[in-house]
Amino acid sequence: MVRRRKGQAINGWLILDKPLGFTSTRAVGRVRYLFDASKAGHAGTLDPLATGILPLALGEATKTMPFVVDGSKAYRFTVRFGAETDTDDAEGKVVKTSDQRPTRAEIEAALPSLTGDIAQIPPRFSAIKVDGERAYKLARDEEDFELAARTVTIDRLELTEHADEDHCVIEAECGKGTYVRAIARDLGRMLGCLGHVEVLR
């Protein structure tokens, strides 16, 4: 009987710029394979739609992952106005539309309401567990369920671009557990125009 080799005891952190279309789990699997590492994990999760820094821990470094997960994060994202999707991003199915569009002044006036310690309802397509099942699995099966609001901390939201009436670019600094997709969804609802994340970095 041939025993499967478990990989090498490689310890340390690898900072990966995750490409578009990769899940965080797939990124970990690829890095673990390339390094032939016995153990690997990721600190935090980036959606397949997102690009950006994904810290990967190898070997003994996985024991320090909670310290990294608890750190603050920074995002730059484009909101598309006029449509809300079932996933709150561009990969989802459009479920509502609006002809209304916000002005730059209206967007800037709304952002303070979404900063500080706020109650945020996570997207239905998320990895949060509901009675032992991942929410995204229940959402895919079109199950009826509700996600409870959770307190998250958003330290900064800044409008950096408003090139046309359909889009704006926002920079965010926030704490653990914050969903940028939910920020875009809630901003669109507050402004009465609906919205979702189109690009996330």
> Could you tell me the radius of gyration in angstroms?
19 Å
Low-confidence stretches: none
The total count of helices amounts to 5
> Based on DSSP secondary structure assignment, what is the total number of beta strands?
12
Instruction: Please name the CATH topology of the largest domain.
Output: Pseudouridine synthase
Largest sheet: 5 strands, antiparallel
Proper CATH architecture of the largest domain: 2-Layer Sandwich
Beta-strand content estimate: 35-45%
Report helical residue fraction.
10-25%
Identify the overall geometry: globular
Structural class: alpha+beta
CATH class of the largest domain: Alpha Beta
CATH homologous superfamily designation of the largest domain: Pseudouridine synthase
Strand order of the largest sheet: 7-10-11-4-12
Written as H for each helix and E for each strand, in order along the chain, the element string is EHEEHEEEHEEEHEEHE
Distance between the termini: 47 Å
How many domains would you count in the coordinates?
Answer: 2
Mean pLDDT reading: 93
Key terms:
201 residues, alpha+beta, Pseudouridine synthase, five-stranded antiparallel β-sheet, three-stranded antiparallel β-sheet, 5 helices, 20% helix
